[in-house]
TrEMBL record:
Belongs to the helicase family. RecG subfamily. It comes from the Bacteria. Residues 283-446 form the Helicase ATP-binding domain. Plays a critical role in recombination and DNA repair. Helps process Holliday junction intermediates to mature products by catalyzing branch migration. Has replication fork regression activity, unwinds stalled or blocked replication forks to make a HJ that can be resolved. Has a DNA unwinding activity characteristic of a DNA helicase with 3'-5' polarity. It is an enzyme of class 5 (isomerase). Keywords: ATP-binding, DNA damage, DNA recombination, DNA repair, DNA-binding, Helicase, Hydrolase, Isomerase, Nucleotide-binding. This is ATP-dependent DNA helicase RecG. It catalyses: Couples ATP hydrolysis with the unwinding of duplex DNA by translocating in the 3'-5' direction; ATP + H2O = ADP + phosphate + H(+).
């Protein structure tokens, strides 16, 4: 069976069903067979309800006999369900599951539940499962097909919408899996043998219909390896191709201008900064293109490394570009760098999307004729009309905000040579992600902060303490400090209970913070207004900056030592850590107060981690673990494909192996045509395309 064949060629799929399948991304046979089960119902291990015991973790399955909902004193919605099979009844307690309630019908719906058995509230009689680890709603028409369920030891359960019947879906997969699937293998034989992996066809068949647990494990192992191998192979080949086809610039070793800039700095580089700077110098002095990622926690001093690298490029007669994710950050870099470099006769320009036409034209001309040595800007830098005379180095600050494609676009602006590329990120990227998204980059770490930083003390508080919190802010301002108040949204929206920055601003300036010099900053302001505000805050004229997350990255005002984050539960931990990184930059004790407006116990627990953990890398790993890769990566705009089976968090070891083996496979000769084919099938070019193979 041809895997590219449209799904409609299958028996039982008409236009209507095809449409339904398309909604979940299934258009051809390959999409279908790589739609892997979410879990399996291990029939042999379902415990009769009459035999469950307190303290055990069990699988049970039964029909819903009764259902009731009430509000608890802690503000949670408790949904109680009585579930019965032929042997007994057990109570199930679900919290805040509005959606579930709507789906269930008493006497009709059945549930599969995996959870820990305890006693029902208020007694030692009735058993209850309150700690529900996972569950599945089994529709009525599904439960009737008992013979189907019993025919395989592990019944695959797929995440599919209500309008597709589980039984139908399984039948489709079965239809394909009982035939020969012509899917090619990218992982070479000798590697599969080494790791005891199945070929792809076998692995796919077994993942849907395993006969034993061992088979299931092996199928999973094979497919996870294959997926990570694919991505790594794609990225590494891309890099190689890049370097072979295009010559990089060979910069000369350090000289006067770089030394002067370094000597003019108000501080010495830390040992960590010095180490990274040396790594960069070596890269730049080679005639292959530099592609390096510099990772360092917020405040570790990456900017200065970027500046030195840019000066090195300029001293060699090339232009440099520094791309920042927000206008505010671009403005700030521009101000600082101009001050540092213009006395040395380096011409610095600023290019953002909102410049006036005339200003923009001037910058564009300067870049094209080479009178501008260094340009700092936002996404505006990657517009087609931006042409450089001889771009030698591209630095992207806060790389996690840009996708792989945007990075590539700026690189493409070099003329005869590929410009060197340096990417900076403060958002700690878990190792798994460095190896996947940034698999084509070399990585440097700045592992320590410059000396003399005071730790930031972080507190999680409920809104009822706001009067105390803002009194504290007021007291600190009276001592000469400054504060950030951060809110999630710009405007109030009707169907959200999130607090808006405007609302908070009005409230504070007429209440708690009356009499202080407050300003309101958000992304919709004009650049000039933003610049003035930041300038005012930097110079100390403004005491309190009420802001959205536009200040998240890079903003540097050492006298600001307090941050209050309203509605903190709406942010990820990595993002909160970024925000928090705005304070603790000077000599003063710094305080970050997270106001939790959430009602969810989990989000509170998550916030409490901020009190305990100050290492951004540890927080990022926790964030990833707690929210799952979808949300975590979603908020990062990373350019990572949706992985079909591998789990970036749990499969690190496999990833590392895959990476080593890809290198061997490439040396041995990898079939690029097949690789490209599979990459295209698997990710539909949303991820990467290796051209010209
Ligand atoms: P980030 O890595 O978050 O971009 P920055 O480059 O903005 O950090 O640096 C944070 C602050 O630390 C800046 O005020 C910068 O001037 C200062 N800084 C950087 N390197 C050093 C150093 N070696 N010694 C002292 N201060 C430093
Ligand atoms: Mg920075």
């Amino acid at each position: 069976m041809d895997i590219r064949e449209n799904i409609q060629f299958l028996k039982g799929v008409g236009p209507k069903k095809a449409q339904a399948l398309k909604k979940i991304g299934i258009e051809n046979i390959y999409d279908l067979i790589t739609y892997y089960p979410r879990r399996y119902e291990d029939q042999s291990q379902i415990v009769p309800i009459g035999r469950i015991k307190v303290g055990e973790v069990v699988n049970i399955q039964g029909r819903i006999m009764a259902m009731a909902e009430k509000n608890t004193r802690r503000g949670l919605k408790l949904l109680t369900i009585m579930l019965a099979d032929d042997t007994g009844v057990v109570q199930l307690n679900f919290f805040n599951q509005d959606y579930l309630k709507k789906k269930l019908k008493v006497q009709k719906s059945s549930l599969f539940v995996h959870g820990k058995v305890g006693y029902a509230y208020g007694g030692y009689g009735q058993l209850a499962i309150s700690q529900i680890i996972s569950f599945d709603v089994i529709n009525n028409d599904n439960i009737d097909s008992e013979e189907n369920i019993n025919s395989c030891a592990f019944m695959p359960i797929y995440t599919i919408p209500d309008y597709i019947k589980p039984k139908d879906f399984r039948n489709l997969i079965e239809q394909v899996c009982t035939q020969d699937i012509l899917v090619k293998d990218v992982v070479p034989n000798f590697i599969r043998e080494k790791y005891d992996l199945w070929d792809k066809q076998t692995a796919i068949k077994k993942i849907h219909f395993p006969q034993t647990r061992q088979e299931l494990e092996k199928a999973k192992k094979s497919l996870i390896f294959e997926e990570l191998f694919l991505i790594q192979a794609g990225l590494l080949l891309l890099k190689k191709q890049h370097q072979v086809k295009n010559k990089g610039i060979k910069f000369l070793s350090n000289s006067e201008l770089v030394k002067t800039v370094k000597n003019n700095l108000p501080f010495n580089l830390t040992a960590e900064q010095e180490k990274v700077w040396q790594e960069i110098c070596l890269d730049m002095q080679k005639d292959v293109q530099m592609q390096r990622l510099v990772q360092g926690d917020v405040g570790s001093g990456k900017t200065v490394i970027a500046i030195l690298s840019l000066v090195k490029a300029i001293e060699n007669g090339y232009q440099g570009a520094l791309m920042a994710p927000t206008e505010i950050l671009a403005l700030q870099h521009y101000g600082k760098i101009k001050e540092l470099l213009e006395p040395l006769n380096i011409h610095v320009g600023l290019l953002t999307g909102s410049l006036k036409v005339k200003e923009k034209r001037q910058i564009l001309e300067g870049l094209a004729d080479g009178t501008i040595d260094l340009v700092i800007g936002t996404h505006a830098l990657i517009q087609d009309n931006v042409i450089f005379k001889n771009l030698g180095l591209v630095v992207t600050d806060e790389q996690h905000r840009f996708g792989v494609n945007q990075r590539a676009k700026l690189e493409g602006k070099g003329e005869d040579f590929l410009p060197d590329v340096l990417v900076m990120t403060a958002t700690p990227i878990p190792r798994t992600m460095t190896l996947t998204v940034y698999g084509d980059l070399d990585v440097s770490f700045i592992k320590e902060l410059p000396p003399g930083r005071k730790p930031i003390r972080t507190f999680v508080r409920m809104p009822d303490r706001r009067n105390l919190i803002y009194k504290f802010v007021k007291d600190e301002v009276a001592k000469g400090r400054q504060a950030y108040i951060v809110c999630p949204l710009i405007e109030e929206s009707e169907n959200s209970d999130a607090v808006s920055v405007e609302m908070i601003y009005d409230e504070l300036t007429s209440g708690y913070l009356y009499g202080l010099n407050c300003a309101l900053l958000h992304g919709k302001l004009k650049p000039k207004e933003k610049e003035d505000l930041l300038q005012g805050f930097l110079s100390g004229k403004i005491d309190v900056l009420v802001s959205t997350t536009v200040i998240e990255v890079g903003v540097n005002v050492p006298n600001a030592s307090i941050m209050v984050i309203e509605g903190a539960e709406r942010f990820g931990l990595a993002q909160l850590h970024q925000l928090r990184g705005r304070i603790g930059r000077g000599e003063y004790a710094s305080y970050c107060i997270l106001i939790n407006r959430g009602k969810n116990a989990n989000s509170l627990e998550r916030l409490h981690l901020m009190e305990k953990i100050s290492d951004g890398f540890v927080l990022a790993e926790e964030d990833l673990r707690l929210r799952g890769p979808g949300q975590f990566f979603g908020s990062m705009q990373h350019g990572l494909p949706d992985l079909k089976i591998a789990d970036v968090l749990n499969d690190v070891n496999v990833l590392v192996n895959a990476r080593v083996e890809v290198q061997r496979a490439i040396d041995y000769g990898i079939d690029k045509k097949v690789l490209n084919e599979i990459l295209e099938l698997q990710y539909k070019h949303r991820f990467l395309k290796i051209s010209d193979v």
